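Researcher: Here's the sequence for the chain we discussed earlier.
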Amino acid sequence: MFRLKNQNFIFLASILSIGMLTACSTNKMISNRVAKEFKNSQVIKQYQVGFALFNPEDKKMIFEKDADKYFTPASNTKLYTFFASLKMIPDLMPALKYVERNDSLIFWGTGDPSFLQFAVKDKSAYNFLLASNKKLFFAPGRYSGTFFGDGWAWDDYDYYYQPEITEMPIMDNMVTSTYATPNKINIEPKVFAPCFKIDSAKTTGNFQVTRDFLINSFHYPAVAVKPGYNQQNPYKTSAQVTVEVLSDTLHKPVGIINLKIPSDAKTLSGAKRDSVLKHLMLPSDNFIAEHLLLVCANQIGDTLSTVKAIEHISKNYLSFLPDKVKWVDGSGLSRQNLFTPRDNVYLLDSIYKLVNNPEKLFDMLPAGGKSGTLKSAYPKTDKPFVYGKTGSLGGVHNQSGYVLTKKGKTYIYSFMNNNFVKPTAEVRAEMVRIVTYIHENF
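Model: Thanks. This is the structure I predict for it:
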């Protein structure tokens, strides 16, 4: 009997050993062939490239090219914000905190970006405040940072992708102007309409709204508005502007009160977290990204601080990463962020296990040839083979995510391209070529 059991053990051990050797052999074969693609690429030799390819089944790194080197991640940073949100934010976003005192309802912002956000369109906080028969008071002071993140380009203040950071954002912290007639535009929120002035000296060119740097003074040229015109400009934020926008939107007065948040403050639940995360990732929304970190900070204390949120996340949730990250904002607008490709793949592996539902996860991510920022990168298809996150700044273009192969495997990759001077389209094409090669051959 002992001999029989021993023989069975030896047989099983042999089978396991053969399986491990087969996996190692396959990974080595993939590594050699991918290495050859990189070696033969004339495009990649012209700038700094980091790449990591990871097999989540056996938890092995298949191929690395400078995967331990630091790169500017751009919007790959949103993967870290996405991960932090899954870890720290409940299924329903905390829309605001509030107390009722006698005839007053006093409320504090939580950083929640979904309040009347143009894509999420959540009205939980709006309906709550609208339905109250008490006097409304906004209590500012929870946010400890500046209106821009560390390392942001201040001369981009008037572009849609860089709205300011506030503790209670409303309507993306932007003014939207749209076509009404050839001589008229609609403006939302309407409270900003008196701030728009025609510049009669400009009579040529396209119709475009611009804002002065430090004040809410908007200008547009004396030219016709074309049908389909739609533009968003960040507005200059302050506590006073917040209550003015709220008052205008709710059609009822909202005051300001100086009051620290008490221990008995209640939390109003709002939008579904995963819906907000989807709107973060697909269009790569900087506004949502920055405010999600404030919501994370809301979960650990009374101060809404990007710095404190990142410190908490790094200490408590990112110890599994092989390299220490330099992480300063939620969106990746800052060039001070520095991550390694191998950090990115380990993070993506953790996200994959955390969601524990590939279909659900992939629905929240851009899909190659189908949706989001990967829609035009890969050929149009009903069955994408790439799901992930792009990241672009001047001289920076990255892509990190999951590649599904024709042989039914799912691999995790991070492809980081920095310091190039050639057109981004050429860099993207080479990156897509290699990721497609992995899909088709392995």
